[in-house]
Amino acid sequence: MKLAIVLGIAGGTGSGKTTVAQAVAGAFMDNSVMVEQDCFYLDRSHIEPDKRKVVNFDHPEAIDLTLLQQCVMQLKNNKKAQLPVYDFTSHTRTKQKRALGPAKIIIVEGILIFHYPQLRNLMDLKVFVQTDADVRLARRIKRDIDERGRILHSVLKQYFNTVKPMHEKYVEPSRYHADIILPEGGFNLLGVETIIAQVARLLRYDGE
């Protein structure tokens, strides 16, 4: 059986990665599944709640790379994977699992996914979403308050203490591993269509 196609979509926080990933997934419907890096934060339940808030979640070591790589490999080999479920309010991993796959197209999305060579090596196409820093910050504030139960002061403190420095040190340099640089994320409709067409070509080639 042919291996599934793995598409990696990286970029800074609030760059529009998820919008692009959802657009690609929507183009292929039931033939695709999404794997979000954010599901794979290490469990912090052993740390006191107040101390969890100061953990650097934007450092590569904050991610359970072993489990993330394992899940992507399972999906690439046309198997089902059990993804962890992460609680962003308590910064802990729940006991729930989310079954995923199999599918012909695996979309892996996250800020650090191009940093890890062992993960990059599983990808057939790598896209880096490039968006202005001010736009990304505004989007992150809205997301963290509306979807993750955060308060403004906490979001801004985390952004300037860890998110911005880690972006400059790890995320931005990883764009050099990308096959495609996509400016403006989901608003770049022509760029998104180009990515969809490229994935379709890979799918046809793989099926020959």
Largest sheet composition: 5 strands, parallel
CATH architectural designation: 3-Layer(aba) Sandwich
CATH superfamily: P-loop containing nucleotide triphosphate hydrolases
By secondary-structure content and strand pairing, the structural class works out as alpha/beta
Mean pLDDT: 91
Biggest sheet, strands in spatial order?
2-5-1-6-7
User: What integer value in Å does the Rg equal?
Assistant: 17 Å
Pattern of helices and strands: EHEHHEEEHEHHEH
Notes on the protein architecture:
The chain is α/β, with parallel strands linked by helices. It has a single domain (5-199), classed as P-loop containing nucleotide triphosphate hydrolases (Rossmann fold), CATH 3.40.50. 42% of the residues lie in helices and 21% in strands. It has seven helices and seven strands, in the order βαβααβββαβααβα. The protein has helices spanning 17-28, 49-52, 65-76, 117-120, 133-148, 152-171, 189-207; strands spanning 5-11, 32-36, 81-87, 92-100, 105-109, 125-130, 180-183. Strands 2-5-1-6-7 form a five-stranded parallel beta sheet, sandwiched between helices. Strands 3-4 form a two-stranded antiparallel sheet. A hairpin with a 4-residue loop joins strand 3 and strand 4 (92-100). Helix 5 packs across helix 6.
Could you name the key traits of this structure?
Rossmann fold; two-stranded antiparallel ribbon; alpha/beta; 208 residues; single chain; 21% strand
List the helices and strands and how they pair.
Layout lengths: L4 E7 L5 H12 L3 E5 L12 H4 L12 H12 L4 E7 L4 E9 L4 E5 L7 H4 L4 E6 L2 H16 L3 H20 L8 E4 L5 H19 L1
Parallel strand pairs: 1-5, 1-6, 2-5, 6-7
Antiparallel strand pairs: 3-4
Helix pairs in contact: 1-7, 5-6
